[in-house]
Write a structure and sequence with these properties.
The chain is an alpha/beta fold and about 220 residues long. The relative contact order is 0.11. The model has no long low-confidence stretch (mean pLDDT about 90). Bound molecules: calcium ion.
């Protein structure tokens, strides 16, 4: 699960990142509103945590732009302003939860888990397209065991079938915005996944969109 945390107090940001990572989250940081907005609009996060008072754009500005762009990702707002009015204003603008500063990271982690919890009645771990069926809970594709990274790539393709999935999107979603992973990482994973699809005699194929990315299509 990848979290974006937009926070201008660097010491706090690093401490919360460290603690959330110990709880198993992947965390990208942004230290001002401009960087935060750019990252949030990439729509690669499972949850976005926004401080309200930030340089350049406020957390509320980021929230408004995300909702304008129809990005449904759960948003938790953080602020030292604990007044009821600020809280109501942000919930009105589409925030999902609100946490007053100072807070304990365990409390933030619990709120993130609550917001990203899927309804138990629907098995959203099982996703499919064409003759491909991936179980995200155990990284099995048509019964074949994948590595965690392979499964994340296949999931990204199945979740946007017949659409361009760019190399940059995959790099940011899987390796993280600040990671030094390069395009050839994606290429080598893609070639392994293609070999597997061939071995499994799948009619579904991954086509390359030259210099841009990949598309999942049926033959
Ligand atoms: Ca601040």
């Amino acid at each position: 699960m990848r979290i974006l945390y937009v926070e201008d107090e660097q010491f706090l940001a690093e401490a919360v990142k460290h603690n959330l990572e110990k709880s198993g989250f992947k965390v990208d940081l942004a230290s001002d509103g401009e960087d935060g907005l750019e990252k949030a609009l990439k729509d690669i996060y499972d949850c976005v945590v926004l401080d309200i008072m930030l340089p350049k754009f406020s957390g509320t500005d980021i929230l408004i732009r995300m909702r304008e762009k129809k990005i449904p990702t759960p948003v938790i707002m953080l602020s030292a302003l604990s007044e009821v009015e600020t809280k109501i204003q942000n919930l009105d603008k589409g925030a999902d939860d609100y946490l007053a500063k100072p807070f304990k990271t365990a409390e933030l982690a619990a709120r993130i888990k609550a917001l990203t919890r899927r309804p138990k009645s629907v098995n959203l771990n099982q996703i499919s397209y064409g003759d491909l069926s991936l179980d995200k809970s155990n990284a099995c594709l048509n019964g074949e065991q994948l590595t965690a990274t392979e499964a994340e790539i296949v999931a990204a393709l199945i979740e946007s079938p017949e659409k361009l999935v760019s190399k940059d999107y995959l790099l940011a979603k899987i390796w993280g915005e600040d990671n030094l992973a390069e395009g050839n990482y994606v290429e080598s994973y893609m070639s392994r996944i293609r070999k597997l699809l061939k071995k499994l005699n799948c009619k579904t194929q991954i086509t390359t969109v030259r210099s841009l990315g990949y598309k999942l299509t049926e033959k």
